[in-house]
User: Fold this.
Amino acid sequence: LHRGPMAVSSLGPLMNRLCTTLDGEPLQSCASLSATLVNTSEPRAATIEPTVPPAVVGWLLFLCIILTLVFPATTLYRILAQTLPSLLGEQSPRSIFLLIVYCVVSAGLAVLSVIAGLKLWLVRPGAVRFARRWLWAYLIANFAYFGLSVFIAKHLTSLSLAAMGLNHVAGPIASFAIWYFYLEHSKRVRETYLGR
Assistant:
């Protein structure tokens, strides 16, 4: 049996009359049934929302800025303003070797830092895992350079040894601990990179 719009619209008053209580108040469930029967509008097409990657904000954004801009810029400054002038004026083959190792390792860490920062910033798959690996590489590289320096440059004074310990042991341990803990336990990181 096919009913046109006129037949359906004539059911509205009938449904209202059938779905009232003795005191004339409409029943709640019948009112929605009546509204459903009277509504003859065309069904709407389902709209698909485009997926927008979650926003990188707060401490996560701060980490991205450090990895992408701050760490590479400070590394480049140290190489150009401190290490290269020392390298040009150095006579000892051991010290020259250490300075070259420092330049190569620092430049490599800076390049990987930019990659890690961009992956986090652009919410790429595997970004958090890559950032954690970069933190491990940063920590191990600093420890290794400190150990190599102590082994090769045996004539280090206690003052220069303390400065190296601060720059290549204490500083990297603190940075590693803070950011690794953040990447592991942050709710924002979990929500931003869920399933990525």
Summary: The CA atoms of residues 113 and 144 lie 18 Å apart. The mean pLDDT is 82. The radius of gyration is 33 Å.
